[in-house]
Amino acid sequence: MIVGAAGVELGMVQPHISHNERRIFDEHGSRSEKKHLKLAYFMFFPPHTTCPQCGHTLTNISRIPVAFFTRDGPFPAYSTSLRCKSDTCGIRYYFTYSVKIDASTRVYYDEAIPEVIHLEEKAFIETSLSELFTACTLFAWVSAQNSALIYNYALSSYGQCEVKQSHFLLTSTQVRRAFVLVSLLKDWREQGRNIVVREDGDLDSRLKDLICERNNCMIMEGQPERLHACDICEKLIPTDIPNSYKGLRSLRAVVTDGTAVGHYCCKVHNCTIPLANNRHHFCPKHMDQQHSCVFTDCDLPARIGHHTCSTPEHSRYEDYRDTKAKAFFLLRQRLQRVGVQQPQSLDAPSEGGSVDLPDDNGDPAHKSDKGNRPSRVMFSRRTTHNEQLVVCTCGVIAARATMYGAESISGVKDFMKSVYPNPQDLPDVIFYDNNCHLQSHLQAQQDDFFHGTMLPVDVFHFKSKHKESDEFCQKHCNPAQWTELVGTDGEWIFNSSAAEQSNVWIGGYQAILRDMLAHNFDFFLDEMIKRRNVILVAKLRQEGKAPYCIPPYPSST
What are the CxC6 like cysteine cluster associated with KDZ domain coordinates in residue numbering (predicted)? Predict the structure, then answer.
């Protein structure tokens, strides 16, 4: 329970009190020498006075000062906890959860999402404030760090002057933890479950357990809109199928595509084991390779204090790379780009000693004129290749998966099978910019899983990226060969560029996602997609597009 000066619960009409009166109340209320008698305008109490388990009266009061972050700024408050006096019970009750001391478990109360979240031992935050930060992230790609800075310097008087009480300054860690807790509480309430977490260990490790459980649930069950359909992404077209409704059948379409956002991962190709730390280059299983030469085709140990082995061409390249990283080299390279002649570098590799390596362009503001070439050397940390999306043509994102090594055809095929494990759940149309190679792969593997599905290349890529001389592509993937995809007005009935538009939205999170560990990355992206889908579906319903979810068929496996 949270009460104000007159014992008024949060959510009820509270008595008007000026900022100065509140300051005086807090100042005098905290003068008592006995901790359990200290008062503040905001007080947090457990919702029980008797133990729900055994009926005994709750005693052993404990009261500590806390910071309460609200939309009006941070305020001092007190948090009170009570313990059951029964020796066999041993439960201490807090504002939003109880702790069974003997079992070291924390159980959140079975109730609606609270208006205030017990964020840390000495920090509380309004749920509406956390949701405001999440909305800023959802619509404007605002990071947790920037949300904290905006709060401290725009809403809080503490951020505008020298602060002796730093616990009144909101941190990016607290913003992130509030986002996780609110999202988990919402998700668990939707499933009719209670959050139970271990009490021992630090808070981040406890949250990691909950995050991983949620991620596994998302892998098994998928997004709530996995089988979304509406009047935009599902059309009724004439058919000769017997017993069809009024001579019509549905035609549902999705688009799959990859977007270049990712997180750091193990340097071993296609290794999916998470890193223990985002500064590591290898996962715990492959950590023994951290002292090997960074040339991918070399197994020799690296020299002490270096990244390459003693092979002359390898060590020479590392020395040359270190030289290129210096500011003078970059500035001289820019002069050469605009036509100003400079003396030949004395530090460059001598003729006859060059190594066939990728052009590690020292100037990050310009791309090499030689184009992209496969890398044989990897000094920096490796990142996942891309995020693969399945997007309904109305813009709702149905599914997401991480591609570690490459956006391979077999990987995309397996991803689509995991999203739609029963062929009867498959959309009627799947647009993909590389459907020509996908169809070729399916034919070579004699895989008929997608037998009843149209697999055209999306219109944009077919016109601009696929050669007319490619007979297989022209024959099997030209969207114009399916007359069902063209309306009576001669226009395409589906927006086959929906994935490209969703990629732009997800691409805005690259700076936020890049340094996250895998479990935080998956949780954040899945939650953002889920919240975006909720908003899009509400908009579709408001526009009369009749959104709904198709009941799934049982899995064929």
Answer: 255-319
pLDDT at 469 > cutoff 70:
no
Written as six digits, the tokens of 114 are 């609270």
CB 265 within 8 A of CB 383: yes
Mean pLDDT of 254-283: 92
Q: Is 320 helix (H, G, I), strand (E, B) or coil?
A: helix
Which residues partner with 259 through β-bridges? Answer: 387
Return the ∠ at Cα 87 (arms to 82 and 92), rounded to 5°.
25
Contact 421, 555 (CB under 8 A): yes
The closest alpha carbon to 506, from 82, 137, 64, belongs to 137
pLDDT digit string (tens) for 305-330? 888 899 888 888 888 887 766 655 56
pLDDT of residue 278: 87
* DSSP 8-state secondary structure symbol assigned to residue 230: -
CB atoms within 10 A of CB 109: 18
* Region class of 224: left (phi > 0), else alpha (psi between -120 and 50), else beta: alpha
* Whole-angstrom distance, CA of residue 430 vs CA of residue 435: 9
Spell out the long-range contacts of 469-476 with Cβ–Cβ below 8 A and sequence spacing 24 or more. Answer: 470/436, 472/436, 472/439, 472/440, 473/436, 476/435, 476/436, 476/439
Query: In sequence order, which residues have a C-beta less than 8 Å from that of residue 159 and are 6 or more positions away?
Result: 149, 151, 152, 153, 169
pTM: 0.83
